[in-house]
Design goal:
By secondary structure, this protein is α+β, with helices and mostly antiparallel strands. The protein contains 14 helices and 52 strands. The strands form twelve sheets. Strands 44, 45, 46, 47, 48, 49, 50, 51 and 52 form a nine-stranded mixed β-sheet that branches. It has an eight-stranded parallel β-sheet with strand order 29-28-27-26-25-35-33-30. It has a six-stranded antiparallel β-sheet with strand order 3-2-8-13-10-11, with no helix packed on it. Mean pLDDT is 95; it is low at 1-16.
Length: 932
């Protein structure tokens, strides 16, 4: 009988809730208050002639100031995507509603799910309650006296002007035009709902996985003028209905106002735990019965998840995890606003999962409820941040108060989500670290269900290289003992694949996560232009397209994209594998798996801003090195001579939910066509979960390699999906270089004299005698607009089928065998001379689109010339790949294929060479940060 009565009460409650709520979405009147006179002129008493659909924004309605910019390679267009219409200021919205009799005279709550930044409410010309100002949680207005039955006019004044200086240059992603736009309007649910005399204000669930129970804190509000007896019923069940636990009933007496009641709810030992592999969710229903027949009901979902940072690692429910993450910076180019439905977020999380990720960091913002719901269901670990990217934290007390309030609101609205695992006060914060530590201490005291950090990295002097006292985890790009990301290594050190970041991790006693790794710029995909059908105009992309068309380079745009993108792929692979080889590491955060269209058009993704692939690598291939289980290999270098032995140490990173037992590790070294050079198997009894296991050493002689070759080294766990592949290059010894009738010289005058005599010349001056750009293996960091202090090239581009490269195996893009050649080079800018026939080019960044070459052929005088800006003639350059390049070029020059068609004059050649040697200055990884 009690069960039947409960079902009846729940049913009545559901019907009652629906009947006691008005949906406020629809057509509203609109008036833009650009002069800020609306309040003085009492616009809250007026009707408006313009109209807008809410939820929605003025940008979507094409209201505000129309864009006047046109596509140009200038900073305003290149900084970001351009709003087609923009409006920043106060805007007034009104509409008429009708209050039914059963809602009349009762307290009401008006809720707007997301607003940017301040909202105020008038009803029938009277302002109601205080202004709301959250950037990341719903705005709620209490209408304590309720409204009479019949028609009423609701007026909203929404002001999207900056209220607090939460970031320099408005870059924090909660309030920015660089990703999310500074929109005006309302997003998500809009409702007017009855608040009963007793209402459930909030329900918080605190899992105790070890003891199989939850602590439930119910905040009840007695809106009446007397104490009331209430009966609470708590019921937990799995979302899929497979488990349902015994109902718990309790009684209490409520005083006036808000009162928190705390209860333990035993679930037992047969609970389903939440993590990335088994994202099991439960629903807690809380029903409050009062005044005999009246009920109030609230449901929250939760997961049995406990996260811990002891022993310097992150565990979830006692199992070690490794965060494979990327950033989410509110990048939604069609609307300029975050999705407010689960469907809108499903593509983000499902794509991230397809690419092997288990973690998203919400950089300087907090997503809406729908994002947490999807993350809960798919098993993602989220790091969420306050709307904060301030370099002056602590100087403005009103801003500090705002941030504290935002934290309290976030916990109230999103705190139950098991995916909400980590939180930071903001991004790269600076100034008052005493305050930041105090804020984290406060956060821990308020809610212990997640890990907290003072800042996600910092450039503040005296900080950033070590954790702060209150940090539960540490996100950084370096420690006081060295870099923990490739930016400071891959262009400074020759390729080596045995290294990790263990040295930089020494003494680290809390979990370390590498900060924003990657940031390798990829040339724009100009076919993407047609996707921008919403509120943003890709003037940056259009300007690049126009410039390429004007220079006759547009047909090569796809080549530029592919060559720069393939370089980015191999760099991301090495970034991720170094992180996974480091046994003490707790994860990485990519910047980014997908493009970032702001901050100078930072196209650093393997996916575009729409989370669509650019075709640079298949997701399945990316998962070879970014997955719960990854075979790893440590070996010394990328290039070998034929009389060397290839040796490697094999390891398996296993961050899955189970040990891998009684499997053999198979390895093979093979040619590009799949012909085995050497192979073998390693017997490993057990590959434990939550660690990196050493499986053994392998070696393979390379004497069987008869010609210069690219080889593939593959390691797999037999009987599983897990495998990984690397490339190495082998160059058998060149016994003697037959130069034939080719003159090899580093001297331009000697070269020109020989050319005038009708000879063939290979000219390869020393670097410090050449004009041109610094030879960099790494591409543009982040953006050439945002960080202009860099060489600005984006990798090599060549035709692998060119006869000059017949004996130098290569793809059309940079790979590790080019490293020593590139670092011994200048990049020649040849826009000012007649066309040349390139053999090896460089992709320029999209702001310049210059013609850049490293090796080219031409006629000059009576002779034929190959000029190499890669120094391949210096005696000390005895690397096998350098000798092989020389051999390949000379062989070509001695063949009948060497017949250049273009012609350069002596002056053209001299224009590429300095009159006297200059010092070669190599830019360091941190030089880009100067003047910022």
């Amino acid at each position: 009988m009690k069960s039947f009565l409960l079902i009846v009460l729940i049913g009545i409650s559901s019907i009652s809730t629906a009947q006691n709520r008005l949906d406020l979405s629809g057509t509203w009147g609109l008036a833009l208050d650009s002069m800020d006179v609306g309040e003085k002129e009492q616009w809250y008493m007026k009707s408006f002639s313009d109209a807008i659909s809410l939820p929605g924004t003025t940008d979507q309605a094409r209201k505000g100031v129309p864009n006047q910019l046109v596509p140009k390679l200038e900073k305003p267009q290149l900084l970001r995507l351009t709003r087609k219409n923009s409006y920043v200021g106060a805007a007034w919205y009104n509409r008429e509603i009708s209050i039914p009799k059963h809602m009349a005279g009762q307290p009401l709550e008006l809720s707007l799910e997301r607003v940017l930044w301040q909202s105020r409410l008038w009803i029938d010309g009277e302002e109601i309650a205080d202004a709301q100002e959250s950037l990341i949680t719903p705005h709620r207005f209490l209408i304590q006296k309720g409204l009479s039955a019949g028609k009423h006019t609701i007026t909203l004044r929404i002001d999207n002007r900056k209220r607090y200086d939460i970031s320099a240059n408005d870059l924090a992603h909660a309030y920015t035009n660089d990703t999310q736009i500074i929109w005006n309007g309302v997003l998500g649910k809009m409702s007017l709902q009855v608040k009963q005399k007793v209402s459930i204000q909030n329900v918080n669930v605190y899992p105790d996985v070890k003891n199989g129970k939850i602590k439930v804190i119910v905040a009840l509000e007695n809106n009446g003028d007397k104490s009331r007896k209430v009966k609470l019923c708590l019921q937990v069940e799995q979302l899929d209905g497979q488990q349902k636990f015994e109902r718990k009933e309790v009684q209490a007496t409520l005083k006036e106002g808000v009162q928190k009641l705390e209860y333990d709810y035993l679930l037992g030992t047969d609970i389903k735990k939440w993590d990335e592999f088994t994202p099991e969710l439960y629903r807690l229903s809380v029903t409050c019965q009062f005044d005999k027949k009246k009920t109030e009901r609230k449901e929250v979902s939760f997961g049995m998840r406990e996260i811990d940072n002891s022993q310097g690692i992150i565990t979830v429910n006692g199992n070690r995890i490794f965060l494979r993450g990327t950033l989410e910076c509110c990048i939604f180019p069609l609307t300029g606003t975050p999705p407010m439905t689960e469907d809108g977020w499903m593509k983000v999380f499902s794509t991230a999962k397809e690419w092997g990720l288990n973690h998203l960091r919400f950089h300087s913002w907090c997503p809406p409820e729908a994002a947490f719901n999807v993350a809960d269901k798919l098993g993602f670990y989220l790091q969420v941040e306050l709307p904060n990217w301030s370099y002056t934290i602590g100087k403005d007390k009103s801003m500090t108060k705002f941030l504290y309030n935002e934290f309290d609101r976030m916990i109230e609205d999103y705190g139950n989500h098991p995916s909400f695992c980590m939180m930071s006060v903001g991004n790269e914060l600076q100034y008052d670290f005493e305050l930041l530590n105090s804020m984290v201490k406060y956060m821990k005291a308020q809610d212990n269900r997640r890990l907290y950090a003072t800042t996600t990295f910092t450039f503040e002097k005296g900080h950033g290289a070590k954790p702060e006292p209150e940090d539960d985890f540490f996100v950084t790009q370096w420690t006081d003992k060295g870099w923990v990301r490739g930016q400071g290594i891959f262009d400074q050190e020759p390729p080596s694949f045995y290294k990790d970041y263990s040295e930089a991790m020494q003494g680290m006693d809390i979990p370390l996560i590498s900060h924003e790794i990657g940031q390798y710029a990829v040339f724009p995909n100009l076919k993407e232009i047609d996707k921008y059908t919403g509120v943003l105009d890709p003037l940056n992309f259009k300007a690049v397209k126009q410039d390429l068309q004007n220079k006759g380079l547009y047909p090569r745009a796809d080549e530029f994209l592919k060559a720069s993108g393939k370089l980015a792929v191999l760099l991301y692979k090495e970034e991720i594998e170094r992180a996974m080889k480091t046994k003490q590491f707790s994860g990485f955060q990519l910047l980014d798996l997908h493009d970032f269209p702001g901050q100078g058009t930072a196209l650093v993704g393997l996916l575009d801003a729409f989370w669509d692939s650019k075709g640079l690598i298949e997701a399945s291939d990316f998962r070879q090195f970014c997955a719960p289980v990854v075979p790893l290999a440590r070996f010394a270098k990328a290039t070998y001579s034929g009389d060397e032995t290839f040796s490697a140490s094999i390891e398996i990173a296993n961050y899955s939910n189970a040990a891998i037992n009684n499997k053999q590790i198979a390895w093979q070294l093979s040619t590009e066509t799949g012909t085995p050079i050497s192979s073998g198997k390693l017997n490993v009894e057990s590959i434990s979960k939550g660690m990196v296991t050493s499986c053994g050493e392998i070696s393979a002689g390379l004497r069987r390699v008869e010609k210069a070759s690219k080889l593939y080294f593959t390691v797999s766990i037999e009987g599983t999906q897990w495998k990984n592949t690397w490339a190495i290059w082998v160059y058998p010894a060149i016994k003697s270089l037959n130069v034939g009738d080719v003159l090899l010289t580093q001297n331009v005058e000697e070269a020109l004299a020989a050319l005038n005599a009708g000879k063939k010349v290979l000219l390869s001056p020393k670097m410090n005698l050449l004009k041109g750009l610094e030879g960099k293996f790494l591409p543009v960091f982040w953006s050439p607009v945002h960080f202009p202090r860099q060489a600005g090239t984006m990798g090599l581009l060549c035709n692998p089928q060119h006869a000059a490269l017949q004996h130098f195996p290569t793809e059309m893009h940079s790979n590790w065998q080019w490293w020593n050649l590139v670092k011994r080079s200048k990049v020649l800018v040849v826009d000012s001379i007649p066309p040349v026939e390139p053999i090896v080019e460089s992709v320029d960044n999209f702001t310049n689109n210059r013609k850049l070459v490293s090796i080219f052929e031409t006629r000059c005088g009576k002779g034929k010339l190959i000029m190499s800006a890669m120094d391949i003639l210096s005696e000390e350059d005895n690397k096998p790949e350098i000798q092989q390049m020389l051999y390949s070029l000379v062989s070509y020059m001695n063949s009948g294929n060497f017949a250049p068609k273009t012609i350069l004059s002596e002056n053209d050649i001299k224009s590429l060479v300095l009159k006297q040697e200059s010092e070669t200055v190599e830019t360091k990884a941190t030089s880009i940060y100067r003047d910022l």
